[in-house]
Amino acid sequence: MKKFVNDPKDYVSEMLEGLALANPDTLKYVPEYNLIMRADAPQENKVSIVQGSGSGHEPAHVMTVGKGMLDAACPGDVFSAPPTDFVYETVKLVASPKGVLLLVNNYTGDRMAFEMAQELSEAEGVAVRTLFIDDDVAVQDSTYTVGRRGVAGNFFVMKAVGAAAERGADLDEVHRIGEKVNSVTRTMGMALTACTPPAKGSPLFDLPDDAVEMGVGIHGEPGRKREKLQPADAMVGELVSAVVDDLPYTSGDGVALMVNGLGGTPIGELYLVYGRAHKQLVERGIEIRRSYVGEYCTSLDMAGASVTLVRLDDEISDLLADPAEIPIRVF
Amino acid sequence: MKKFVNDPKDYVSEMLEGLALANPDTLKYVPEYNLIMRADAPQENKVSIVQGSGSGHEPAHVMTVGKGMLDAACPGDVFSAPPTDFVYETVKLVASPKGVLLLVNNYTGDRMAFEMAQELSEAEGVAVRTLFIDDDVAVQDSTYTVGRRGVAGNFFVMKAVGAAAERGADLDEVHRIGEKVNSVTRTMGMALTACTPPAKGSPLFDLPDDAVEMGVGIHGEPGRKREKLQPADAMVGELVSAVVDDLPYTSGDGVALMVNGLGGTPIGELYLVYGRAHKQLVERGIEIRRSYVGEYCTSLDMAGASVTLVRLDDEISDLLADPAEIPIRVF
């Protein structure tokens, strides 16, 4: 394993410490609960937004804490859900009189931790709602999931609810917006290589030199099929078709298009993928109104990419255009 | 080779096409000369800033074109200097009455192309100055270089001269600022793995599973030494010591600290590296006033990182704080 790591069990805490040191004015790291929060949270006049997930998907979610997005992120260890009590303590730390919205990518472990934390928090009088994100079209159920997985499309939900909360929307309204964005967002990804968790020290699965995993999950879960490596146009075409056909997105739709890198693929390749996807969508009569290229939801050092579409209306476009102040300036 | 690529000879042009498609309002792609320029260049009332280099270092430099940074970037093929006539055509396209500043990382091929383009442009009456960047402390001369190499510290020069130009500074003043920033900027990087150019299809050099290249160049050039893989603290310590001792940076200095990923290292590891470097610098009495973590100047898919320090004064701090509008929002 070739990584910048000391003791693998300190990987997450040392990463979070670095994140806080790099953003001393805006972020606070609370080591007891492994959480990153806005230094100025809670804001009394806005709904607080919290997301957690396993670590290893950075920038999701610890690097998307800031004005206009999350008030706090409570990550677990690499590819592990955060403990219920850490989620509960996070909710208490950022609880605002307007309530707390919990965002959860749809994995069984995360759902359990957040649902229990919601119950505990409500018992103490905090208004809490929970929203599950399940944008991944690759498979219906998966290794750690009943129902679809939540992946990079999560960013659009975070951004829209974060913007709505900053504008003063109440908890029900923020929840409505998040559900709406999730309902028009679809993603599929593919792996060129496996990823190596620091504590394991070796690749999580075997992928031959001439093969790719089409529809891979962000923890290396199997996708739709393993197939031969092909030229970019063909592989991008498979991703685009799977996403377009699912909602479906149709001629005349205006969309946001995101090409997300899975951690080991350089930005030059991601822009190449973006260009091919853009042209394929235009050929289908789909109008691209907003573009996102970079790393949003990764899988450690996995080489690969995902394609996300969001069908836009005026309300969603407007919320996505609001400013956000986060460590990585992806929006 | 596992990459998102069609015909490797189209790698750069397809990447640039994707970049332009993702930024239709702000960027223009000129395929004849392989260049990316601001859609609104030239601006009559400001010095135009141009940088070129081999491709494969993205986001440098095609993704740093925009208000407050570059007016144009003219990349060559992967790891190859741009042809002189492409640089010359770029200068003509963005020439402003206030002149053009050419930024060149110090590699022999790039120097030749830009010096000749400057002569050709001056013969046509364009006021041109050229500034060479050589922040890499690893080695004195190198495979493609007489004198030190220019690497990620280049971003601070780009940002400062871009800001000064937007404020209306004249060509001599913009050049003075660039020279000053370069003179207080130092970088060293290290590779955990080699990189694979698309046209070669295999790794550019061999690096055993238990070895790292300390002081590597961004084209895979040899560094100071090949050594055993160590825990992050020890490897970061070597980078920090080499950089600090070179200028040298001393107790009481206020600095900008950049941790730059070389393409294949995920952002989580980069923040871990940042945290370790930050603490080591604080122990030396150095005050970190500005922080940069992410990918700035890469080497295709190489796993590795570099550490850059800039000694700040009020003038440099002020320029670095100015806004910039570029595709990747790193500043």
UniProtKB/TrEMBL annotation, chains A, B:
It comes from the Bacteria. This is Dihydroxyacetone kinase subunit K. The keyword Transferase applies. PANTHER family: TRIOKINASE/FMN CYCLASE (PTHR28629), TRIOKINASE_FMN CYCLASE (PTHR28629:SF4). GO terms for biological process: glycerol catabolic process. The keyword ATP-binding applies. Keywords: ATP-binding, Kinase, Nucleotide-binding, Transferase. Residues 7-329 form the DhaK domain. It holds the Pfam family Dak1. Signal peptide: none annotated. Its EC number is 2.7.1.121. GO terms for cellular component: cytosol. InterPro entries: DhaK_1, DhaK_dom, Dihydroxyacetone_Kinase.
